[in-house]
Recover the amino acids of this structure.
């Protein structure tokens, strides 16, 4: 590890998800928990001691102090979406590399302001979508990129729902218009959209059409919605995201010659052993009473959970920048595309489920 | 078996699917292969001898002769859809009970003519959707009807696709406007729609909206399409059907407390041992790095394959009618609802993917 740079992370706020992220940092030898800041110093202290921060870690009673600390290399920003623009822009101006939770903004214009700040300050930005860093995702990509086994991608279908309880549906920041105004679309729909774009090699669809039946709360925040997407080459996709249905996280990608299935694409059922199912060139037996071949289950083991894989990759990029490389544009590019699709779904819902051209 | 009536089947035509159906009849003690008719006597003879018809079975060179045979109790009609109305109406007029392949007509008006003939002649009609007769289907229904384990149904998503080869896409009756004018919608989409209605306790949706991206051949026959459905109570559904994508047959039903998954709902991977996956009250572990509980795999064994289960149930109903009962209206009712939804999808595609109220 001697040749690698140790990346010192500062965390803005004590969100629930920051606990998982903090643990991930402790698993990555090239990253360290260096600082945490909260509007409440007491909360920051409690967070640091509950999450295995080293004894010499800095604990601040504000986000500003984290950004002012010259030894912080990178910040993790799990704040409510409505605060992303302000704090990510400030972080970039302070030359901090940024791991930004999703959705990256309330709309793509906000993210563009963040991107501009990152670009002009030469800092790396990556969003907090963990599943794309799982080695299973690479194995699935290998399958759906295989012209012989999978053929040409024809359709992708994703679902992410979980049933928020009464407290969630009343009080969670994700149902508050002034905090996470995109609701289920920004939270669960973010992953659905990313899954679709991932399968489509991040090619943007031509048209996005929200599906009739979206459910909004009294404040106008989306609690459940779906969308249909289509591409110029004939590919189509659908997704369904909801705070009102049982936990489900499916991706199904269908090519001309193969099908990929998995039911835990965002959070694997288990951290170390992940599965997916693939079928290739399946047909029926002679009397159409069974399949030949039947789908096969693939197993992918991983030493590090996906959130630590994300931290490792982000830290690697920051380390490269410290050695003179430029920021990796792939990550903000796919963040921006994901946000663009979410924006289009929102517009389509507002327009009575009419198609929106991208 | 002494108290049960042996139902004598006549088959109209020698379609591929009739081979599977003939084998099913040989597996059911209450049914017998009694006659087959084809426009070609030679074809009918070859079919009878290749499909284990008894030596005394009747072999006819026309469909009419099957209908005229007074000893035929019931007919199986696997003819192209455009011929359903003519031959099903004639069969009913000859007091033959009818097992009719799907789609039941080119539109619901055709099926209504068939229904009228069946009602006025007191004959049973059932469509050839086999999977609903599998004992697995009953086990799945038990789960999604369970208010405690599954809760209230919120969404259903079905897919049925298979990749027709060049010959299929050029010559199969399912791509010919004068034979099976509904194309992939009538063939694959029939099962998708039935799966959705089955999950929704056969309650018709309020609105049906075809998804942008439908693919039609030069003759205007649908090769691939999708649809969104919504109900007054907020339930939603989507389906995707296609002749252009790899073999996939998924149903996902999501309730407030549970999720049902299976990937072979129409033709089980294997005839005797069928699976499905259910999850109930799943959440995440403390750090959101895994699920608790994870979905569980259910296994349903069956002595008879689903097509024979269908023949057995149909024969039971015919036997009851012979003993004085009235025809069972459940089966034509669900056939008609399925056709109604298909008709609405077709109208929506023609209207530029606008919603169609049912």
């Amino acid at each position: 590890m001697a040749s690698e740079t140790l990346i010192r992370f500062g965390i803005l706020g004590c969100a629930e998800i920051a606990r998982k992220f903090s643990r991930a940092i402790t698993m990555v030898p090239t990253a360290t928990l260096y600082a945490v800041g909260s509007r409440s110093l007491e909360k920051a202290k409690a967070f640091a001691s509950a999450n295995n921060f080293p004894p010499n870690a800095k604990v601040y009673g504000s986000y500003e102090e984290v950004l002012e600390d010259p030894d912080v290399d990178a910040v993790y920003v799990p704040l409510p979406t409505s605060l992303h623009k302000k704090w990510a822009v400030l972080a970039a101006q302070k030359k901090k590399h940024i791991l930004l939770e999703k959705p990256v903004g309330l709309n793509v214009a906000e993210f563009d302001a963040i991107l501009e700040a990152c670009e002009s300050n030469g800092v790396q930005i990556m969003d907090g979508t963990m599943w794309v860093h799982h080695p299973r995702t690479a194995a699935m990509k290998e399958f759906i990129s295989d012209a012989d086994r999978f053929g040409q991608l024809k359709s992708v279908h994703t679902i992410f729902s979980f049933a928020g309880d009464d407290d969630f549906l009343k009080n969670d920041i994700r149902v508050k218009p002034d905090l996470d105004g995109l609701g289920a679309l920004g939270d669960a729909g973010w992953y659905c959209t990313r899954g679709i774009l991932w399968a489509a090699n991040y090619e943007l669809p031509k048209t996005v059409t929200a599906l009739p039946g979206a459910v909004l709360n009294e404040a106008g925040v989306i609690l459940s919605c779906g969308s249909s997407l289509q591409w110029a080459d004939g590919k189509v996709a659908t997704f369904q995201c909801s705070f009102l249905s049982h936990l489900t996280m499916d991706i199904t990608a269908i090519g001309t010659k193969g099908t990929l299935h998995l039911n835990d694409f965002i959070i694997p059922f288990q951290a170390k052993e992940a599965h997916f199912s693939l079928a290739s060139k399946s047909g029926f037996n002679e009397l159409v009473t069974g399949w030949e071949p039947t789908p096969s289950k693939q197993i992918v083991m991983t030493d590090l959970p996906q959130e630590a894989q994300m931290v490792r990759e982000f830290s690697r990029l920051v380390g490269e920048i410290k050695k003179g490389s430029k920021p990796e544009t792939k990550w903000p590019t796919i963040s921006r595309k994901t946000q663009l699709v979410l924006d289009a779904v929102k517009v389509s819902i507002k327009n009575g489920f009419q198609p929106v051209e991208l």
